[in-house]
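TASK: fixed-backbone design
INPUT:
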């Protein structure tokens, strides 16, 4: 798939989905903002690409809710970066968000494939 096709096929995130993606990414370990956006992009097969205009306000919001914490560190290439990590409260919220997302997926599956019937489009 070409870059242009990937861009055209980008999926706009449902409200609240970005929080889930960030929390899940931080579950894998502490990360700076650019690393979070790269992990989301890479692990979604480049379907989700979070720009800084969406990412940093979300990180600030999650930090204010005490779901994540941050500290300044020096990166491998000697740059000062803010590293984010999941808090205990964030782990609890992640479990809640994952449960909600499972309900959304099951609901969508019920509508897209009622009674388990095969695709008859």
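OUTPUT:
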């Amino acid at each position: 798939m070409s870059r242009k096709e990937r861009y055209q096929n980008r999926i706009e995130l449902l409200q609240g989905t970005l929080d889930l993606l960030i929390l899940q990414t931080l579950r894998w370990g502490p990360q700076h903002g650019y690393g979070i956006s790269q992990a989301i992009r890479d692990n979604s097969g480049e379907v989700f690409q979070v720009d800084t205009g969406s990412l940093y306000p979300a990180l600030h919001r999650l930090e204010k809710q005490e779901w994540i914490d941050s500290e300044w560190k020096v990166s491998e290439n000697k740059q000062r970066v803010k590293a984010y990590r999941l808090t205990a409260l964030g782990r609890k919220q992640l479990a809640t968000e994952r449960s909600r997302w499972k309900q959304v997926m099951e609901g969508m599956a019920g509508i897209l494939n009622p009674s388990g019937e095969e695709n008859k489009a």
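COMMENT: The beta strands are 31-32, 68-74, 80-86.
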